[in-house]
Write a structure and sequence with these properties.
serine/threonine-protein kinase, non-specific serine/threonine protein kinase, three-stranded antiparallel β-sheet, 2 domains, transferase, alpha+beta, cell membrane, Phosphorylase Kinase, domain 1, nucleotide-binding, Transferase(Phosphotransferase), domain 1
Length: 416
């Protein structure tokens, strides 16, 4: 595991073979006896619980070795009721994600114990083994209150699985764009809290000893716990940042249309501040309740940033495009300051964008002013008007609860 953090400058990305040996060799030697050797008691042989770890290190830490449990396939099969369809939380490029329970006293008894999310590789997945490795390499050693915790993994024969903490409130995407009685719109203060938490997670990645470029920052990858604490998930595309002698990493363009920075899309040059651009896009989504990319909007409005940017620089124009789900109950000065911050994050030239540390500081200053949300003059208009371009939601963050079925919106296509 350690080699992924100490790769030579000329090869900052771990290779697809060999570098997981310090952890994964335990599974390759004896998969037949894995269930017996590992057991199903999570507290007995793993050294962690689903709720511990981050409290002692509020500023995060990089672990010297991954603190991960090696699960048997039988154990995860039992936890998810044999990967039953009604346990599916969502589906992404990697494969399906299932809800499960780990119960120390009664293994296999569902409905009690510790809730988990189990991501199971689809054998036909294009993302596959390399991104499974990336999750283990990066998230397995990163510990921060605003990063989703990877609890463990399973590698038996052709079965590749990842086990995460379960996030009760689902994804930011769900709350901004979902619909139905079980999807709650977010109040202004919660939106600001989420933005700050996600910014802290990115800032930690960027300022760690080995700078990590997240590369796929978007609303569906921001998950929320029971108190709406934001945590960044899905490190399948993460890369080590450039060395001191380099300004960028050159890599194959991957990510999501609408969120990817222009310099990365155009050249394949990936900078730490490429993530800042994606954060700016999410800020605009938080303000407007509109998707980064929506082909169902009128011509000229498909890509949110291109259409909305002129509206972010004037308070009068900003008011017209604020999320109608807020019903006008938001502090106008704070909203405008966040719009200004979003514009800085979306600067075409990456050098002109703020660092994520500066973004966190700006958002915390906005929060500290404690400006009270204003009450709209005509509330009935807000109650009867739907938000701009809202569409049914099909793709959900795979670690989040499934709130409703039958959604048919196609997410922005991946850059791959």
């Amino acid at each position: 595991m350690g080699t992924c953090w100490g790769s030579p400058a000329g090869n900052p990305t771990p290779s697809t073979t060999g570098h997981l040996s310090s952890v994964i060799s335990q599974t390759t030697n004896n998969t037949a006896s894995s269930a017996t050797s590992r057991g199903s008691n999570i507290s007995r042989d793993s050294g962690f619980s689903a709720s511990s770890g981050d409290e002692a290190f509020p500023n995060g830490q990089i672990l010297p070795t991954p603190n991960l449990k090696i699960f048997s396939f039988a154990e995860l099969k039992s936890a998810t009721k044999n990967f039953r369809p009604d346990m599916v939380l969502g589906e992404g490029g990697f494969g399906k994600v299932f809800k499960g329970w780990l119960d120390e006293k009664a293994p296999g008894k569902s409905g009690s114990g510790t809730l988990i999310a189990v991501k199971k590789l689809n054998s036909e997945s294009l993302q596959g083994f390399e991104e499974w490795q990336s999750e283990v390499n990066f998230l397995g050693r990163l510990s921060h209150p605003h990063l989703v915790r990877l609890l463990g993994y399973c590698w038996e024969d052709k079965e590749l699985l990842l086990v995460y903490e379960f996030m009760q409130k689902g994804s930011l995407e769900n709350h901004l764009f979902g619909r139905g009685s079980t999807v709650q719109s977010l109040e202004w203060n919660i939106r600001l809290k989420i933005a700050i938490g996600a910014a802290k997670g990115l800032s930690f990645l960027h300022t760690s000893d080995k700078k990590v470029i997240y590369r796929d920052f978007k609303a569906s990858n921001i998950l929320l716990d029971g108190s709406y604490t934001a945590k960044i998930s899905d490190f399948g595309l993460a890369k080590l940042g450039p060395s001191a002698s380099q300004s960028h990493v050159t890599t194959r363009v991957m990510g999501t249309y609408g969120y990817a920075a222009p310099e990365y899309v155009a050249t394949g040059h990936l900078y730490v501040k490429s993530d800042v651009y994606g954060f700016g896009v999410v800020l605009v989504e938080i303000l407007t309740g509109l998707r980064a990319l929506d082909p169902n909007r009128p011509s000229g409005q498909h890509k949110l940033v291109d259409w909305i940017m002129p509206h972010l620089s004037e308070r009068r124009k900003l008011k017209k495009i604020m999320d109608r789900q807020l019903e006008g109950k938001y502090p106008s000065k704070a909203a405008f300051r966040i719009a200004q911050l979003a514009l800085k994050c979306l600067e075409p030239e990456h050098k002109n964008r703020p660092s994520m540390k500066e973004v966190v500081e700006t958002l915390e200053k906005i929060e500290s002013t404690n400006e009270k949300p204003t009450e709209p003059r005509n509330r009935s208009a807000h109650h009867t008007t739907r938000r701009h371009g809202q569409q049914p939601l099909h793709h959900r963050s795979p670690l989040a609860p499934k709130h409703e079925a039958g959604r048919a919106y196609q997410n922005p296509p991946p850059l791959r």
